[in-house]
Amino acid sequence: MTEQLYRDFYFEDIQVGDEASHGDYQTTKEELIAFAKQWDPMIFHTDEDVAKTTPHGGLIAPGTYLLAIRIKLLHQGGVNRKILASAGFENVRFLKPSYVGEKLTLKIKLLEKRVSKSKPNYGLAKYNMELVNELGTAVLSMIDTVMIERDPSRRDDG
Questions:
Q1: Can you give the pTM of this predicted structure?
Q2: Which structural domains are found in the chain, ordered by start?
Q3: Which residue in 132, 153, 141, 81 sits closest to 111, CA to CA?
C-alpha cells in the first residue's frame, strides 16, 4: 500500500480561471469488465464479442467507471484535507464512448467561487471537469462544486 499524498490549500489560494491537468489513467479490459459486472452489467460493458456487434463496435466504459477514474485522477497528486465535501454535480455528460485501452486525463478549470452563506468558514468553488482521451476528445464533462475551508488568517468578514 502506498502512502497517501496530501496537497492542502485554502479557499483563498484559488482564483477563477485556474486550470490544472491530472493524469494519465490507462483503462484495461479486465478492470473495465470487472467493474461493469459489479456495478453496470450492460452487455456492451461486459461481453467483448457481443459489444463488437453493437453500434459502439466494442467494449465501452460504464459512465460510473469514468466518474471513478475522474475522482482517482483528481486525488492522484494529493488529497486536499481542506475540502469538506462536494456540494453536488451539475450537467454530468457522457459525451463519447470511452473504449478499452484509452489513456484518460482529467482537465479542470475553476469557473467561480464565493463564500458560503450558511457556513461562512467555507467557500464554494465551482469547477468544470473534463475527462479526455489521448486524442484530446472529451468523454465526460461535468461541473463539481466543492466546499473548501477558508484560511482564518485571511478571512475578511467585515
A1: 0.91
A2: 13-149 (3.10.129.10)
A3: 141
